[in-house]
């Protein structure tokens, strides 16, 4: 089966889950799947996807896996004890062929946030792998050739010795087997330039550093949990700081667009958080604005890290590193370009939170076409509250 460990997910699912346990254990949420790649007939494989989900919901954390999580400095004992009793429950998943678009699937996850938060990454990995094993034939030799060319580009370029990348590719990987095969190769080929992976399972078995802090859903949920919508980002960041007390201090900047984020990310947050992550929009413009904002708030940009993670390849990593080095600290999370580059075209699939406690929530992306919400009226209201222009056409 595709998923063989509940650790086979991104670290930030656990860091957010722990905060949910401590602060919002009663919150009820809804997530929705979307395939942004046109012409993909996933419905023909729905029985295979269902079988994989059934298997996923039979998994439990092993004692060794719990011991590993407990070894991470920011994981608390009560959370580890909770995970010892945890299982994913099939009743929270509604998977069916789309009633409106032939070939597409409709997939919703609805239930307590605490009990549904771990579904996203393994479900995306399952859908990806089911698609590729039915529509293409893996060529690991080709993948190794492509990987070697990428790592050589970074490794052999003068002046890039301190450029660091991590693997962020769990959700859109070609397969679990390729993901597990690729990671030791990257470490061997890049040495200290490769700093770890977002995937907790592979971090554990390969002795790598797991990477991750928060995802969009954390800030989205506060659109329904916060006292006022206009304060949702500030309350989300305050709640995160209350949970981790200065640890895991990378803020996500694009849930309601960069300009609205900068209005909320005041001097207090500039000094409190270790850095900021980019995930949509022009990364060069974004970085310039962040550096300008830090300086305006009496914060030395060289003391902060800018994390880039949006659709990166090695060539783009090198351009960004060359542009920003000496002006701030920089780090890079590379996903699909590492874990799904064997020849077939990768799928662009996502699962996003669309409701919390019965209220719509949304991400207003800095990239056209990436916003996701099932309530157009709420999207318009959200833009009005945060004083944002209408979304440009994709």
From TrEMBL:
CDD domains: PncB_like
Keyword Transferase: yes
Organism lineage: Bacteria, Pseudomonadati, Pseudomonadota, Gammaproteobacteria, Lysobacterales
Transmembrane stretches, start-end: none
InterPro entries for the chain: N/Namide_PRibTrfase (IPR041525), NAPRTase_N (IPR040727), Nic_PRibTrfase (IPR006406), Nic_PRibTrfase-Fam (IPR007229), Nicotinate_pribotase-like_C (IPR036068)
Entry GO terms, CC: cytosol
Family assignment from sequence similarity: Belongs to the NAPRTase family.
Keyword Ligase annotated: yes
GO annotation, biological process: NAD+ biosynthetic process via the salvage pathway
Modified how: Transiently phosphorylated on a His residue during the reaction cycle. Phosphorylation strongly increases the affinity for substrates and increases the rate of nicotinate D-ribonucleotide production. Dephosphorylation regenerates the low-affinity form of the enzyme, leading to product release.
Domain Nicotinate/nicotinamide phosphoribosyltransferase: 163-389
Source organism of this protein record: Stenotrophomonas koreensis
The Nicotinate phosphoribosyltransferase N-terminal domain, residue ranges: 7-128
Pathway of action: Cofactor biosynthesis; NAD(+) biosynthesis; nicotinate D-ribonucleotide from nicotinate: step 1/1
SUPFAM superfamilies in the cross-refs: Nicotinate/Quinolinate PRTase C-terminal domain-like, Nicotinate/Quinolinate PRTase N-terminal domain-like
Swiss-Prot/TrEMBL keywords: Glycosyltransferase, Ligase, Phosphoprotein, Pyridine nucleotide biosynthesis, Transferase
Gene Ontology MF terms: glycosyltransferase activity; nicotinate phosphoribosyltransferase activity
Reactions catalysed: 5-phospho-alpha-D-ribose 1-diphosphate + nicotinate + ATP + H2O = nicotinate beta-D-ribonucleotide + ADP + phosphate + diphosphate
Name of the protein in its database record: Nicotinate phosphoribosyltransferase
């Amino acid at each position: 089966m595709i998923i063989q460990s509940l650790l086979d997910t991104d670290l930030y699912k656990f860091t957010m889950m722990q905060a949910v346990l401590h602060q919002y254990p009663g919150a009820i949420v809804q997530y929705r799947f979307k395939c942004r790649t046109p012409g993909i007939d996933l419905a023909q494989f729905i029985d295979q996807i269902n079988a994989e989900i059934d298997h996923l919901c039979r998994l439990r954390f092993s004692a060794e896996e719990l011991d590993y999580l407990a070894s991470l400095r920011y994981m608390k004992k009560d959370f580890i004890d909770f995970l010892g009793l945890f299982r994913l429950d099939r009743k929270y998943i509604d998977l069916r062929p789309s009633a409106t678009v032939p070939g597409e699937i409709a997939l919703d996850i609805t239930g307590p946030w605490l009990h549904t938060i771990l579904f996203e990454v393994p479900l995306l990995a399952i859908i990806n792998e089911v698609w590729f094993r039915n529509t293409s034939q893996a060529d690991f030799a080709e993948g190794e050739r492509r990987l070697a060319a990428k790592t050589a580009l970074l490794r052999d370029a003068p002046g890039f010795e301190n450029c660091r990348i991590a693997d962020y590719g769990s959700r859109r990987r070609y397969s679990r087997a390729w993901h597990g095969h690729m990671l030791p190769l990257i470490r061997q080929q890049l040495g200290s330039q490769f700093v770890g992976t977002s995937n907790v399972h592979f971090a554990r078995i390969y002795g790598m550093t797991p990477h991750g802090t928060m995802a969009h859903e954390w800030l989205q949920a506060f659109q329904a949990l916060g006292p006022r919508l206009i304060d949702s980002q500030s309350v989300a960041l305050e709640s995160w700081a209350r949970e981790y007390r200065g640890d895991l201090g990378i803020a996500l900047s694009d849930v309601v667009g960069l300009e609205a984020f900068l209005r909320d990310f005041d001097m207090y947050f500039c000094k409190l958080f270790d850095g900021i992550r980019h995930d949509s929009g022009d990364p060069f413009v974004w970085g310039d604005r962040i550096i300008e904002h830090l300086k305006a708030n009496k914060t030395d940009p060289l003391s902060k890290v800018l994390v880039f993670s949006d659709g990166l390849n090695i060539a783009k990593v090198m351009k960004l590193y060359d542009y920003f080095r000496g002006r701030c600290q920089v780090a890079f999370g590379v996903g699909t370009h590492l874990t799904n580059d064997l020849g077939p075209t990768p799928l662009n699939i996502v699962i996003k939170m669309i409701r919390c406690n019965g209220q719509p929530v949304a991400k207003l992306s800095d990239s056209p076409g990436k916003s996701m919400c099932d309530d157009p009226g709420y999207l318009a209201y959200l833009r009005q509250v945060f004083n944002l222009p209408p979304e440009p056409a994709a």
